[in-house]
Amino acid sequence: MDKKIVQSDPLNRDYRDTTTRLIGIAEKEIIMVVGEIGAYKFLDVRWSLEEAISRGVRVSIYAFSPRSDIRNRLIELGAKLYLGSEEPRQKYLVVDGKHWYIAKPEEQEKRAGEAHFDDPKGASLLAKKFQEYIRDKEPVDKIDWEDPLLQLTQD
């Protein structure tokens, strides 16, 4: 097992490098528990996630309050998106049931945390928590037509 401490920095470089590394090694599945899916605004993170989906990696996300444009794009790409009514206390990412990243609760907005590689036991615990978040939820499968930019492209 390899552990990496992810430090906060002004450009979130350490976080972005670690996240794209994790997403890049995904072969089967990515699970995320997030708030607004704010990391999707970083182009390198977005591109790595979209590339993983194009490789056939299953992506499942529990999100509290994503912007409609991000939500619509992920649905369009084929991610399973579950919308929740509560902000998750812990935000994390699990890759292939063996690698994972978790944000430090007190520094979530600064994107500091820990990444663990080849730790299936820790990944399993987080995957179980994910199942609790989505227990009574169905994935969102309809694009939000209230998004004015999306409406323009569909008319």
Biggest sheet strand line-up = 1-7-6-5-2-3-4
The first-to-last residue Cα distance is: 52 Å
What's the number of structural domains?
Answer: 1
Give average pLDDT, whole number. 91
Say how many strands there are: 7
- The total of helices stands at 5
Form type: globular
CATH class term: Alpha Beta
> What's the CATH topology label?
Endonuclease, Chain A
Please outline the major beta sheet: 7 strands, mixed
Taken as a percent bin, the fraction of beta residues is 15-25%
Structural class: alpha/beta
Please render the helix and strand layout as text.
Layout: E1 2-6, H1 13-24, E2 29-34, H2 43-54, E3 58-63, H3 68-77, E4 80-83, E5 92-95, E6 99-103, E7 113-117, H4 120-133, H5 148-154
Parallel strand pairs: 2-3, 3-4
Antiparallel strand pairs: 1-7, 2-5, 5-6, 6-7
Helix pairs in contact: 1-2
Summary keywords:
Endonuclease, Chain A, 155 residues, 5 helices, 23% strand, alpha/beta, globular, 35% helix, 7 strands
Provide a descriptive summary of the structure in words.
There is one protein chain. The chain is an alpha/beta fold. It has one domain (2-154): 2-Layer Sandwich (Endonuclease, Chain A). It is 35% helix and 23% strand. It has five helices and seven strands; from the N terminus they run E-H-E-H-E-H-E-E-E-E-H-H. Strands 1-7-6-5-2-3-4 form a seven-stranded mixed sheet, with helices on both faces. It is globular, with a radius of gyration of 15 Å. The protein starts with a strand and ends with a helix. The mean pLDDT is 91.
